[in-house]
Design brief:
With 498 residues, this protein is α/β, with parallel strands linked by helices. The protein contains 19 helices and 15 strands. It has helices at residues 51-58, 67-75, 83-99, 109-114, 121-127, 144-151, 189-201, 220-229, 245-252, 268-275, 280-293, 312-321, 349-362, 365-376, 421-427, 429-436, 443-447, 458-464, 475-497, and strands at 8-11, 15-19, 24-28, 46-49, 65-66, 103-106, 160-164, 206-210, 233-237, 257-262, 298-303, 325-329, 393-396, 401-403, 414-415. It has a nine-stranded mixed β-sheet with strand order 12-11-10-9-8-7-13-14-15, with helices on one face. A three-stranded antiparallel β-sheet has the order 5-1-6. Helix 2 (67-75) crosses helix 3 and helix 13 (349-362) packs parallel to helix 19.
Length: 498
Amino acid sequence: MKGDIIMFFKQKSNILFRNYESFGYITDNRNFGYKQTNDIENYIGDKILSESGSVFMSVLSREPQNIDELVEKIKKKFTDVDVETIKSDALEFYSFLERDGFIISGETIQECDDSDTRFSYKLLESEAGQKNISSTYIKPEKSTQDFFEEFFQGKPQLTNLHIEITSLCNERCVHCYIPHDYKISFIESDLFYDILRQCKDMRLLHLTISGGEPMLHKNFTDFLRKCKESEFSVNVLSNLTLLNDEIIEEMKANSLLGVQVSLYSMDSNIHDEITQRKGSLEKTKNAILKLVENDIPLQISCPIMKQNKNCYEEVLNWAKEHKIHVGDDYGIIGRYDHTTQNLNCRLSINEIKDLIENKVSKDSKYIEQIEIEAEKKKNMTSNDFVCSVCHSSICIADNGNVYPCAGWQDYIVGNIKEAFLNDIWENSQKVQYLRSLRKKDFPKCIQCLDKEFCTMCMVRNANENPQGDPLVVNEFFCDIARLNKKTMLEWEEKHINS
């Protein structure tokens, strides 16, 4: 409080808070929101709060409240402490949290709201020339999951849930890992709302909503609204061809929401050939621009395949022009029913070699990234976990089936209609089996000279194996690992001798 002025406080719009009774946890949305195209990265980080600190934080909301209102709420928890002491402690505590970037204060409600700067493409443009990072915002050294693993002493904590609200899709993408014959149904609305309640009880932080095409669900907008009310970070995976004003307004209302969309080419003949829907490029491109216009965080995904290998860079350039982060990847996986017709469009090893050489010739950071990832894996041991499957995330299909990760839908670990999510997470034998796996269960990989250039992925193994065995190593990705290593060594030798 400044003199006799009554101060207002609110939780910052991009902050997530979870109350664990004995402690509190606050984090920014960096672990779940999409990357920005600038390099400023004013991340706030994570913080564990004491039991009393958790009470002080829990009375804050995303709407400004004056200090007297907050003290009155806190007093209900600390009935034996006098009001002035609570007020003094609260002001000191809130000052501490504001300094670290988690909350905002103001002398008026308007000042408080105006200080809550939200994502803006215009802001990215104005910050493009900045280099200095405010000392208030320090890039965190640990991820959210690292915090939880440390605090809970290795016990897996579910923080991310992927919900496919419909298997139906209005496109027929040639590379899709979901067999088109299975794209037939919608999640029951009551089931979705029940899942949200269970997620709230389990203190989840992040939800991914996808399909099929999620906007085909008649209650899609209401689903987003309920996610916002429950204060979940939300990512929507959509082709955006069904975007409308109602959906845009709901997306704008949630500052913890981001969107991911696939864009394959700026040539409609090629994009529409991949989606198997004429006119899909124009619909998707116009919807992307509409999201940018409304300052809704967006990421473009550009899978590279035979159809677009010669023009995918046009997508990267277009995205850069509009300040949109874009990711490209050539690692297409087989369908989850173990049919592999969709892999007809996957690049051959020779085509991937040409692709990597082209990337290296145009961007030295590409090699640097390979080196960084390889360095991280140098200390890998045989007792390390294979991946994060069933350690921090899990997926639910529209029919209630629960499975390990996106694309691995034939490995059902439970059904949400038959058991609570928490029971499946804690007690499913299949979940326990996946958690028990270690690098040593893949002896070929442990002994491999190229292991530092490879990321083990069980769904890649399972989907291309006729029996769906996740332990049978997918040789195609072994070839890619060898190729990455060879490329890096040749680049290093060339620059040493030059």
